[in-house]
From TrEMBL, chain A:
InterPro entries linked: GAF, GAF-like_dom_sf
Pfam family of the protein (one): GAF
Protein name: GAF domain-containing protein
Family annotation (SUPFAM superfamilies): GAF domain-like
UniProt domain GAF: residue ranges: 13-162
Record-linked SMART domains: GAF
Gene3D superfamilies associated with the record: 3.30.450.40
From TrEMBL, chain B:
Peptidase S8/S53 domain segment(s): 44-270
Any GO molecular function: serine-type endopeptidase activity
Keywords: Hydrolase, Protease, Serine protease
UniProt-listed Gene3D superfamilies: Peptidase S8/S53 domain (3.40.50.200)
A single GO cellular-component term on record: extracellular space
Xref: PANTHER family: CEREVISIN-RELATED, PEPTIDASE S8
Active site (UniProt): 53 (charge relay system), 92 (charge relay system), 236 (charge relay system)
UniProt entry tagged with the keyword Protease: yes
Protein name: S8 family serine peptidase
Membership in a protein family: Belongs to the peptidase S8 family.
GO BP term, example: proteolysis
Species: Streptomyces chumphonensis
Statement: the UniProt record of this protein carries the keyword Ribonucleoprotein: no
């Protein structure tokens, strides 16, 4: 088993949770691919956290600038967006799309919000044609993004808690070791 | 007091999903204002419309001439507005400008970029850009943006009122998600959501605000970067339709105040029917 990317969720449960989010998003919209990005505010970058479909095996952990394109708009505006008819659009996010070896014809993207903060972005690439450009689909995307945001919050909280859990484990081990030494030193020789 | 009760406090509606014009028919009192009086024959000539957004691409065939561009930049003393030739960071502002141009082909178009690059959130930059636009005295400001940051609400409210009294009409997009955001919720702006009708010229008044008007925002062909177009959906694209309509009204009736302008839009909306009011 390969080690998770340093920028990816480190624990298996978090990875499983995010993976299920993108799998379901892809299924709902009959899409070629779906991704969840974490927004790194300090670096102003987006980081692939989970991918379903094309690029699944190599994109997790990859970063890209958060100031451009559809995902950039979603981060800075906090609004979802649906765009279609990109196949003949020579400028549309081409650099990024080519880096992922996939230039979609349609993209749906929604912010993952916690209060007034944008934690990340949910993106759905190449949904089936009937899932594009209608207000009902935009509503569904926004609704599902609320669930995805909750999942991302859980992952982030686990990440914050991970060092504490490790510290507590180390302290417990120390305690067990001390007890063992105490027991050994106190064992009657008879 | 006698007579029919005034409207009860209807349930607030954020959108018009599953409803058509007949479901939101309104009988209104007022002058018999019609589209023919309000905006037909007006093309926006002489009206200055400012798109506060991600910037506007110059020379886009669907946008045409951009008469001035500025951007908000971060300085040591805070955000400042400076002249800018940076164009559009993502395409959204260009899309809005193209829709204003389609509706009001002869208006003057200006751009203030408040999003893009390293701008995160829509608070400080949005405030600085919008305040600047209001104080420049633009006739119409298209704001297909809002901020969810409650700490800006009071300041934005004061600015929206200032714009209202200066006769700068702020046409503001309702958020596409059911979250609290500003300034579209304020009565001093004209707020816009999307209807689902397949009619690119139809706009409706919403009898249950805070969203006051619905305009075409579904499956809209819009200008995008590099002189291209996309198809897109959302309140962002309904808003510039109403901004363009405001420009048309003002080009025919340049002395209207902001409240008269909103009234003209109200009375000439397709679902509003004049009842007992007006001349005998």
């Amino acid at each position: 088993m390969t080690e998770p990317h340093p920028d990816a969720a480190s624990d298996p449960l978090s990875r499983e949770l995010l993976q299920s989010v993108v799998e379901v998003a892809r299924a709902i919209f009959g899409a070629q691919a779906s991704s969840v990005f974490l927004y790194d505010e300090a670096a102003h970058e987006l980081i692939f956290q989970a991918v379903s479909g094309r690029g699944e095996d190599r994109l997790v952990g990859r970063r890209f600038p958060a100031g451009q394109g559809i995902a950039g708009w979603v981060v800075s505006s906090g609004e979802p967006m649906v765009v279609d008819d990109l196949a003949h659009n020579t400028v549309f996010d081409r650099e990024f799309a080519e880096s992922t070896e996939f230039v979609p014809d349609a993209i749906m993207a929604a912010p993952l919000l916690h209060g007034d903060r944008v934690l990340g972005v949910l993106e759905v690439l190449e949904p089936v044609p009937q899932s594009r450009s209608s207000l009902g689909e935009l509503d569904l995307l926004a609704l599902f993004a609320e669930q995805a945001a909750t999942a991302l919050r859980v992952v982030l909280e686990r990440r914050v808690d991970a060092p504490r859990a490790a510290r507590e484990r180390a302290e417990a081990l120390d305690l067990v070791g001390s007890l063992q030494r105490l027991l050994e030193s106190g064992t009657p020789t008879s | 007091m006698s007579g029919a009760p005034r409207r009860s406090a209807a349930r607030l509606s954020w959108n018009l999903r599953g409803k058509g014009p007949d479901d939101v028919a309104v009988v209104a009192d007022g002058e018999p204002v019609t589209p023919a009086w309000a905006f037909e024959g007006g093309a926006g000539r002489g009206v200055r419309v400012c798109v506060v957004d991600s910037g506007v691409e110059h020379d886009h065939p669907l946008v045409g001439r951009v008469d001035g561009s500025w951007g908000v930049v971060t300085t040591e003393s805070g955000p400042e507005v400076r002249e800018s030739a940076d164009g559009d960071a993502c395409g959204h502002g260009t899309a809005c400008a193209g829709i204003v141009r389609r509706v009001a082909p002869e208006c003057e178009l200006y751009s203030v970029r408040v999003l893009g690059e390293r701008f995160t959130g829509t608070g400080d930059m949005l405030m600085a850009g919008l305040r600047w636009a209001v104080r420049q005295g633009f006739d119409v400001v298209n704001l297909s943006l809002s901020t969810t940051r409650a700490r800006f609400a009071a300041e934005l409210h004061a600015l929206a009122d200032e714009a209202y009294f200066r006769r700068t009409v702020i046409v503001a997009s309702a958020h596409n998600m059911p979250v609290e955001s500003y300034p579209w919720r304020f009565a001093s702006v004209i707020s816009v959501g999307s209807h689902q009708e397949d009619d690119q010229d139809l706009y409706l008044y919403n009898p249950a605000p805070p969203v006051e008007f619905f305009a075409p925002g579904q499956n809209v062909t819009a200008a995008w970067l590099g002189g291209t177009t996309i198809r897109t959906t959302g309140n962002s694209f309904a808003t510039p339709f109403v901004a363009g309509l405001c420009a048309r009204v003002l080009s025919k009736h340049p002395r209207l105040t902001t409240f008269q302008l909103k009234n003209a839009l109200y009375l000439s909306a397709a679902n509003v029917h004049i009842g007992t009011g007006g001349a005998p």
